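Database export, one record per block. Field names are fixed; values are copied verbatim from the stored entry.
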Amino acid sequence: MKNPVPQAASLLLEKLLLLVHIRPLPAGSGGETPPPAPSYYDTSCFKRGDLLEVPRTLFIHFGIYLGENRVAHLMPDILPTITGDRRQIQQVVTNKRLILGVIARTASVRVDTVEDFAYGGSILVNHMDRLFEDQVLGSEEAAHRAEELVGTTAYSLLWNNCEHFVTYCRYGAPVSFQTEKFCETVKMIIRDQRSVLASMLVGLASIVCLGVAPSTTLPTIFIPFLLWMAG
């Protein structure tokens, strides 16, 4: 009899990826590159060095336009640490490659078509320029910086993501407003004293369900205490 746990975990990951508009590949595809989709983006309005944004449900993906329907963008990817085969690496990043890249904290700055970069989403052009005013670098300088960084790099969901990459290329400094917003949200949760009560209730529920043990008792005591002190 097959173990249902891996199947359930795989199904859960697919559902989560659907929520953030990442297209899951068919289970039997083996990670093969799907046939190229027809071009439905008007790239004539894009200029070399433009910063492209693709809003998703839970995040925004960023890239630098290099011209000729090419976009440089940073994506988590485990494959560059496993193989040096550039043809394999250049194939569209599958969900498994992306998730394992996040876990292994490795990524690659890659060049894809606008279609593969945007995945059907709407594209905003230079939307962040208003936040940096006089810090916008020249278009050729931004594109040149992006091209220099193409290849394998370290990845951090909070400290080195696709937004850090594009802001370094176009504005000269790696910044992520998504990271700042996330950290502010975490601070608000910690400062809200209701989180102390909530953590205590969760801890007591775990003791009732799993019994008294160090793995249940210690978190029930220390997590509410730390939240109370931090708040």
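Remark 1: The radius of gyration is 21 Å.
Remark 2: DSSP finds ten helices and six strands in the chain.
End of record.
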